User: Fold this.
Amino acid sequence: MNSCKLKSSLSALLLITSISFSLPAIADSKEKTTSSAMIEKEVSLTTESSTPHISEILPEDFRPAFTRETTIKLNAIVKRSYSVINEFDTATKEWETYLSGMDQPASTEATNRFNKDQLMVLKTLNKRSKDVLTEMNRAVDTLKASGEHYNTAVLAGMVKFVKTVDQEVSEELVLVFKSI
Assistant:
């Protein structure tokens, strides 16, 4: 996935999380009644009777995606992953600039030094992305075990972002290893 698309996804995800905290989502991980189930129920009621039925949605039908504490915790994890992908993009641009600026073949020593520097940066970013992914998995496990209400779609988007960042950095590290 292109890192620009990844960043756009993150922006949208953080916006959804923020909005869902202030304007609660209907989806509920604990209850079997969802908005689609409510719609199906209303359709069956209106088709059974000759008069249209109006459904009332009560305040208890609305909930935020996460508690405030969980939102802050998960956003901090996603922010660290976002930082990794930003540093990765910067490093990638620097490497491309270095390679495009070479009019003639570089000496073996310069190439080796460049490859070692690139490898060191990628190893650091790879370790950080794996640490963030581990932390996210731990937070998800804790959230599920807590019995706390959460929006599964928003959580899945956050987890996907962190996994994608880890995957991109890991793939680049493998490519650099192969080139050395």
